[in-house]
Description:
The chain is an alpha/beta fold. The chain has helices spanning 17-28, 40-52, 67-81, 109-137, 157-176, 194-207, 211-219, 234-241; strands spanning 8-12, 32-37, 57-61, 86-89, 140-145, 181-187, 253-255. Strand 1 (8-12), helix 1 and strand 2 (32-37) form a beta-alpha-beta unit. The longest helix is centred in the middle third of the chain and has 29 residues, at 109-137.
Amino acid sequence: MKQLSGRVALVTGGGRGIGRAIALEFARQGAKVAVASRTRSELDSVVGEIRELGAEGLALPCDVMDRSAIKGTVATVIERCRRLDVLVNNAGGVYYKKLEDIMTLTHDDQLFEDHLFFNLTSAYYATRAALPQMVEQNYGRIIFIGSGYAKMGGGPLAYTAGKHGLVGMTRAMAHQLPPTITVNTLCPAWTNTKLANDYFDEGSKALGTTAAALKALAEADNVQKRLIEPEELGPMAALIASEDGGRAITGQVISVDGGYKI
Length: 262
């Protein structure tokens, strides 16, 4: 039997990158998968891929910067599917017009607050909305997508603070949830996604270097000397989400990162 047969999962930020890869792996493992993000065309594409794998998919446009939209998205999944077994809080990232706007000495105040909401608070709202259903059905798996910067410094200020916050929230929740509901943070390092490649392109201009040079620095940060691929997160996420394999895994910060800064 597939690991997630009969389960219902929601993946935020599921239109591309790591979110898409996890959604597709869940589909391979037999789950019904709802994907949420702002871009309808990306959602429709991912749901098409889910259906090609023989699974049910649901596209839910959602801006995770909107508290009501987050709560409504979770409610829609529960209403349509009658349960919610796995929540992957993947939405997050970094955005800016000028690099100095996200650096400590010159940080834009509103961007700081927005990045905390994007990377941390939005995950709280989604999880808070999902937990009553998980308690009622006596089963649930909460997965936060962290970062190498969830465990150490070196990254943009608010992004790093938000990702560290996910670790703290994981550990606090693990103590307060029923044992049938697990909560973990899954941490990639530099991953071959639009987020990373945009940084290489835009950051190189601000820093007076090249995208290739920034990518080489990122590759040098782990012992495998490469960017990991989004698809490499899928199998670990599926294991954590499963009933048997994930039962004893809770309150953990799990790295799939090629040996990032070890």
